[in-house]
């Protein structure tokens, strides 16, 4: 019977290039850590994966797909070819992204419907299965390098005005059961209105792994991306499920997490090999 490989989750930091052939630097001379540096660090952090029942001799841990240099968030690492193939298969496992967009004036919510209908790119049509607009001041949105100066002032002024008026926040829309948490495929008229500011976050779900596809999709409808974070693959959320809150955090998937991923990939979880329960 075939044996399962090892699967890790990694909170990719901004500035890291995902190149499997990059030589380790160990940070010598102030150089940035490469992907292979991080793989070595992760294997040292989680030694149970090295030579465990779930790893086969001769297998090499590698990134499952890529995130571009400036994109942060959830990256899977595995030494099992079937995991790579199923996660990256077009139309397969969904991925949830949060994109920071900055414009001179807020965009109309109806513009985002184009992403669900499909946009034309040089390498073919691309579409999102769900789109949601996030308030620019959502704590877990990746706005840290844009929400300064005037933005912070607007935040304080808005909070003061809300407190004075005794306003109550509108309840968030629940995500449909078949969408990753936090994403909504509802028509534009049913979604939350864009905030009256030039910085906001678009959360969208796609099931393709083409090069920089999220950035290109948003640019195609006139929304240039200033920050991008992948927050979920299948049912595994970077923070809520995996507790990878900071860039550089990592974990080895436990049995329940791996079961969810394999089910999302259409892979058999009954293959031999032991895994920790937590």
UniProtKB/TrEMBL annotation:
Keyword Chaperone part of the UniProt annotation: no
GO molecular function: pseudouridine synthase activity; RNA binding
Stated name of the protein: Pseudouridine synthase RsuA/RluA-like domain-containing protein
InterPro entries, per the entry: PsdUridine_synth_cat_dom_sf, PsdUridine_synth_RsuA/RluA, PsdUridine_synth_RsuA/RluB_CS, RsuA_PseudoU_synthase
Keyword set, alphabetical order: Isomerase
An individual GO BP term: rRNA processing
Protein species of origin: Prymnesium parvum
Bias (Low complexity): 161-188
Pfam family, one: PseudoU_synth_2
Annotated Pseudouridine synthase RsuA/RluA-like domain residues: 8-220
Region (Disordered): 145-189
Domain of life (superkingdom): Eukaryota
Family: Belongs to the pseudouridine synthase RsuA family.
């Amino acid at each position: 019977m075939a044996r399962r490989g090892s699967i890790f989750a990694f909170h990719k930091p901004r500035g890291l290039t995902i190149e499997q052939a990059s030589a380790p630097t160990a940070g010598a001379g102030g150089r940035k850590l490469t992907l292979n540096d991080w793989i070595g660090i992760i294997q040292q952090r989680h030694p149970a994966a090295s030579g465990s029942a779930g790893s086969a001799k001769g297998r090499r841990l590698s990134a499952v797909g890529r995130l571009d240099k400036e994109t942060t968030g959830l990256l899977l690492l595995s030494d099992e070819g079937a995991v790579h193939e199923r996660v990256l298969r077009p139309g397969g496992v969904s991925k949830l992204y949060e994109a920071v967009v900055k414009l001179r004036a807020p965009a109309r919510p109806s513009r985002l419907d184009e992403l669900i209908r499909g946009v034309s790119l040089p390498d073919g049509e691309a579409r999102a299965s769900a789109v949601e607009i996030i308030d620019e001041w959502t704590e877990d949105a990746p706005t840290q390098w844009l929400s300064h100066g005037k933005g912070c002032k607007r935040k304080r002024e808005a909070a003061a005005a809300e407190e004075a008026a005794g306003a109550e926040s509108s309840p968030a829309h629940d995500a449909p059961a078949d969408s990753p948490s936090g994403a909504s495929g509802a028509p534009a008229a049913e979604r939350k209105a864009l905030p009256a500011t030039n910085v906001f976050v678009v959360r969208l779900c796609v099931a393709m792994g083409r090069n920089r596809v999220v950035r290109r999709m948003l640019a195609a409808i006139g929304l240039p991306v200033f920050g991008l974070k992948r927050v979920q693959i299948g049912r595994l959320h970077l923070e809520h499920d995996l507790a990878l809150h900071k860039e550089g955090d990592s974990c080895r998937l436990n049995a329940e997490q791996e079961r969810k991923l394999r089910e999302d990939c259409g892979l058999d979880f009954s293959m031999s090999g032991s895994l920790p329960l937590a």
